């Protein structure tokens, strides 16, 4: 099997459980959420980018990767609104913490970036079995001057997971092989 089985890291904490019941108004996070979400009470990619940039999540002085924000919203958008509601936002918090801990465990010198080899090791530890060629292509795509920042790392993790899930759904025999029609292939790739 070329990819992590049985749900991969999405079966970790924060996934699968029913979103917290009760009244969101009583949740201390709710005011913070509303402050980011603005009038419509939903967080879109621009709002999420602003929030994560202000929280210093991108490291350095650049804004948080907007592509990563879009990917994260799409990943957690259970009610298909295209934006992030309160429960989805809380799930994101859990996922972000997991990625951050994972990222920092590879960032030995605490520079806020990891190198290509470390990214490849991280992907391996998530269960992805990829050829050196595939790993090199990923590293090239997500690094800047050989270094990978946290937000680029997230973009990479979310995308490889989403594409793997899409592939796995079509790989009914679980053999790591699928026949794609051109139009279907484009739909899969372009919607992520
Ligand atoms: Ca909003
Ligand atoms: Ca939503």
From TrEMBL:
Listed SUPFAM superfamilies: EF-hand
A GO CC annotation given for this chain: cytoplasm
Keyword Repeat listed: yes
GO molecular function per UniProt: calcium ion binding
Annotated transmembrane regions: none
Membrane topology: Peripheral membrane protein
Keyword terms, alphabetized: Calcium, Cytoplasm, Membrane, Metal-binding, Repeat
Domain EF-hand: 94-129
Location(s) in or outside the cell: Cytoplasm; Endomembrane system
Protein known as: EF-hand domain-containing protein
Source organism: Eleutherodactylus coqui (Puerto Rican coqui)
